[in-house]
Amino acid sequence: MINLYPKYKKKKMSDWIILCPNGVEKVLGGGILNTKIRINIINGGEYMRKHIWAAVMAAIFSTTVSSIYVQAESTYLTDNVVVRAENARARAKKRPETVTIITKQDMKEKKMQDLRNVLEVVPGVSFSVDGMNRSDYSIRGAASRHCPIFVDGLKEAGEYSKLMGAANEMERFSTHNMARVEVVRGVSGARYGSDAVGGAIRIITKRPVKTNAYFDYEYRVVAHDKNDEYTYRLGMDMVGKRMQAQVSVADNTTAPYYNWQYADYNLPYMTDKNFPDVKTMDTAHWPKNHTFIQDNFSGSRRHLEGRLFFQPTSRTEVMYGFHRLNDDTRTAEFLGHFSFEWWLRGDWPEALTEKNKGFFFTEYMDIANHIQRDTNQGYISYGWNTGDIKLRVKDSHYGKLTNTYLNTTYLKNKSSDWLESGDRSYDMELNWYGNPKHSITVTAQRKKSYGIGTRLRTTNKAGSFKYHYWEYNAWGYGDGIWETTEEKQLYRADMEEWNAAITDTYTPNNKITVVPTLRYTHHTTGHRPTVGLGIIYKNDDRTKIKANVGTGFSTPGMMEMYHHFMMKPFTPITEDGVVTDCYVDAKDTKGNLQRIYFYPGWYFQGNPNLIPEKALGFDISLEKEYTHGQGRLTAFYNHITDYLNLYYTLKKLETDPDDGTQLNDTRIYSYSNLKRVTLAGVEAEYTHRFNKHWSLTASATYLHAVDDSTGKRLTMKPLWKYIYSLNYKNKAWHGTLWGEYNTNYIDIFDRKHIKFERIEEGYEKNYGIANLLIERQVTPSLSYYFGVNNLFHYQSTSLNIRGRIFRIGGSLQF
């Protein structure tokens, strides 16, 4: 903390110190990121008002209409002026939209390691896992593609895929450099641009305010299978008179989650009676412990980040930042039992005999991702007495190598795919505060995106991708190990967008605030205006009524428009009574015919004629403050048309006589704007302070999410969700008990309970998770803690819930 004017005493201590005596010219810290400071003049008149505004605005280099907050509330008394810097939660009360703010202190108290941990405590947010074991989130029932992620005001997700664009993104955002996270719920297309038809997640990073270094470490053990994992963070902040720098490195590992539920499957045809020689093939038996099968994406995610801030004058700031993410994770998925006969027919038909044609092998697919994402960004900003302007540029490059291994004990092969995408955006933001009743913000942005990959099909070829392919068989058919260099065609797709918006925060009196926003967006897939209107009515100092209405739209991604990928039918069906067009006829030792059916294959085909999704929504809330707490009750409604959907076209690929099956049952799936969905519900939130040590936060969300065409509820979402957090804190100890409970959650990936022919119906479940953490603050710069996540050991592979996890860690600042 730097005190530019030591002769003035601070009235209140806080994270941010702003001292404003007569004629002040600077605000310390070199500017406050994403901040608007409200100045209350006690004495001094208009002349003093202008000087204060000039000084403060010179320090506020990144003010926006949607991010006008600082870290904590502070009040300072000088000769003639009181300067009050309101904290983020206090400022949120003056915003019309429904927003939940998770501060750095919240993250510290629960030792949140990534963005998923942050979102777990936000009302209306639910989680799921898709068919490829990727974790995902939704806000008030809106999919993650409708709730984009922003970092310091710039959208993070690219244009490559919308249905899968946010997959695993929660785990890729480390909390080590976050100052706070703001989760906006409701249609926000006018305020935050295209794709924000269900809300927005705004990450505000921390700035260096004093020179120091820090080190955090956490070690975890998963009770389910005793696997361990860890997280560490190492960083340093350096603060000078006109320059500040920040460097950090973080590594977060995730242990594999081995799924023991597969042992409950029924395999009626895999018996020693039918196959007497099966004992010589251990994988043809159903193993008791599938220690080589895991379902989540496990591995390491490493972050390297550096930022530099420079203030050449008291009114100007220049910033450059670089961030690199290396994501090396993999997943293994059980596929069933592989037909040895089918494999031999395709590769070595001369080796096929009556003795071996009925063999099956336990098979699983191992997918390894090697991802590197580099982000360069910078801005220059200038402030004056009644406003400020900022010019920003951001360039992001994403590369992903996917190696796919099909494995049995005797047969293995490896193939690879490549994906590359990039986004470059130019952004201008102008803020004007010249009128006490109006605060106006004007923004303009231009963005270009491209995607190159082996799983695209366009008219634009972009070279070829060469990779090392190998195939191995332990029985020595052929050469045993076959290696070669394979080549796949690369295709390229491009998209472009520009948009402009204007927002006016109008305060006609001390009871009413009106915030209209108008935005126009031109995108490769279409152009559309979006509007938003927020109103706050302040009945008294403790009661507010807020209402919002707005429109939004979401554009399709390159993957949905140009997808090209096939998964052949090779997994035998283990359920009784399920019949498909894909099968092989095998004989047992007595010569009896036994027909084995296979799950259909998948062929994904893009649709270049997709149009943007459109949304119309509103919400209304009542906020009330009490002597020892505060509450909020919100009703919301969101109607989305032209809903982007993956569907079965009722078509199949032509029969391939070389694939070893009687009929080819590879089904063609594509994307369409078929659905209309309605998302509506009620949220109730309450925080109560019992005394200076104890506090409680609780919320309940009811979600009515239905497909209008069928009247059925949308899957992978709960009907009711309850969240709670009980906190205790004194000078030396801190403890938190928090968790959630979900009812009527429709899970379509629960392989233990869902039959193949009724997968759309899903399996309805109720479940809860409770967590406990206790921390000891040894000194102001040293602490340690221990805790347990998922106290009652609930497990669900389909939801990536791994059971009880033990945690121990510490933090050191120096």
Automatic annotation (TrEMBL):
> SUPFAM superfamilies from the entry?
Porins
Gene Ontology MF annotations: siderophore uptake transmembrane transporter activity
Q: Which PROSITE patterns match?
A: TONB_DEPENDENT_REC_3
**InterPro entries found in the cross-reference section:** Beta-barrel_TonB (IPR000531), Beta-barrel_TonB_sf (IPR036942), Plug_dom (IPR012910), Plug_dom_sf (IPR037066), TonB-dep_rcpt-like (IPR039426)
**CC annotations in GO:** cell outer membrane
Q: Which UniProt keywords apply?
A: Cell outer membrane, Membrane, Receptor, Signal, TonB box, Transmembrane, Transmembrane beta strand, Transport
Q: How does it sit in the membrane?
A: Multi-pass membrane protein
Which Pfam family is one of those matched by this entry?
A: Plug
Compartments reported by the entry? Cell outer membrane
Tell me one GO biological process term: siderophore transmembrane transport
Provide the TonB-dependent receptor-like beta-barrel domain boundaries: 323-791
Q: Where is the TonB-dependent receptor plug domain?
A: 93-200
To which protein family does this belong? Belongs to the TonB-dependent receptor family.
UniProt name for this protein: TonB-dependent receptor
Organism, as annotated: Megasphaera hutchinsoni
